[in-house]
Amino acid sequence: MKKYITLGISLLFCSVLIGQNNKVQTAWSQLSYYQENKEGNKEAIIKAKDAIDAACENEKTMGAAKTWLYAGQIYHELSATGDAAAADKAFNAFTKVIDLEKDEKRKKYSSDAVNSLKFLTPGMYNSGFEKYKAKDFKGAFGLFSKVLKINEITASMAKKGSTAQIDTATIFAAAASADKGGLKSEAKQYYNQLMDLKYDDPSVFQSLAKIYRDEGDAGKADEVLKKGREMFPDNSALLIDEINRLLNEGKMDAATDKVKEAIELSPDNASLYALLGSSYLNQQDYGTAEKMFTTAIEKDDNFADAYYNLGVVYYNQGADISKKAADLPIGDASYDGLLKTSEELLGKSVPMFEKFLTLKPGDMSTMRILKETYLRLKMNDKYEDINKKMEAAEK
Asked: In this predicted model, what pLDDT tens digit does every residue of 208-263 receive, in sequence order?
């Protein structure tokens, strides 16, 4: 009796195993049928998917590399039908094949899995690009990083002696997506890789330096910018980053020299003249500062900050001369002349500040300067007008 019972259990076990193996074979046969005529056999790929899903979830077949190879091939086909998640599932399935056979001497299915992964990369890259354009930066990074993983797998399984081409375009796309998506650690990893590869784009150095500076690592940021300047000595953007660093450190003379160097590279860049003007303004070299801000406005007549700073040049001189006049002894003969010069300079500041307000309306600090200046110059109508605007803004 025991023999019959044991035999019955064995037969039952075999039938379950055969049933699950049949799911794998059904998936394969339906996939093959679909590939023969994709337009006419659309139902076949759904049947293939249902069968392989069942096989992937069953403990008897989920550990077989063949199961996951078929799963990858089926989901790859589904990805071409517009199933957005299918490419990701195909990627996971193919990498599962490789993982299952990593310790096997005879890898029956890994080669097919690697070759199949290669076919996923164009679609994944394009999907990543679309997500990037749609500002889904984390989603874009996920896809670009998978493309890089495929490249890594392909390179690791290449024949000895063969040279794998480094996909710097995708590394850059992954770095930029991670950076914009707030994944700063991943962005640093890929920017550093690009820097080591001497990638021909100065923005890599700018972006990496900014991450380090935002993290408070000024030394690392400066090191990156230095490497960038060595690689791209004629790049004005990197030079401007270096200038800003020097200005922040209070190294005015060095910054001024660098701005002059940058102007030689970009003579029509209004920001450079304004930057140089700010340097001279800080040194109270008002004559040179005036020339620089005037040139910046000539290069860009809507440059609000250049108008404001040119106004400051005149205003500060007028205020300094007014103070000098106030400090004179009563009855000093030079008093009236100094006062007149002061009022002329303050008068020259007025249209500059007014122009700034047309470009940046509602700036209260500028309105206060104008209010005070209108009062001192007895410009009563303008004083009343700006006073009303300020009161309305403060309500």
From this structure: 999 999 999 988 998 999 899 889 987 878 888 888 778 777 788 888 888 888 88
**Amino acid 159: pLDDT:** 65
DSSP character string of 174-185: HHHHHHHTT-HH
And the tokens for 68? 């996951």
Taking the C-alpha atoms of residue 336 and residue 352, their distance in angstroms, rounded to an integer, is: 25
Range of the domain at 80: 20-126
- Looking at residue 79, its pLDDT comes to 87
Q: 165 — alpha (psi -120 to 50), left (phi > 0) or beta? A: beta
pLDDT the model gives residue 237: 82
Report residue 183 as tokens: 């994944």
How far is the C-alpha of 314 from the C-alpha of 319, rounded, in Å? 9
For 115-174, write each residue's pLDDT tens digit: 999 988 888 899 899 999 999 999 999 999 999 999 998 888 766 555 567 899 999 999
Structure tokens that stand for 263 in this block:
């102007």
CA distance 273 to 291: 9
**Residue 262 forms part of a structural domain:** no
Instruction: Assess if residue 28 is contained within a domain.
Output: yes
Q: Is the pTM of this model over 0.70?
A: no
Name the band, by pLDDT with cuts 50, 70 and 90, for residue 38: confident
> If we measure between CA atoms, which residue out of 204, 207, 209, 145 comes closest to residue 137?
145
**Overall domain count for the chain:** 1
CATH of the domain at 99: 1.25.40
User: At residue 196, what are phi and psi to the nearest 5 degrees?
Assistant: -65, -30
Q: Which long-range contacts (CB under 8 A, 24 or more apart) does 154-163 make?
A: 154/114, 154/117, 154/118, 157/98, 157/110, 157/111, 157/114
Residue among 226, 239, 155 at smallest CA distance from 195: 226
Task: Please enumerate in sequence order all residues whose Cβ is within 8 A of that of 205, keeping only pairs 6 or more positions apart, or say none.
Answer: 195, 224, 225, 227, 228, 231, 232, 238
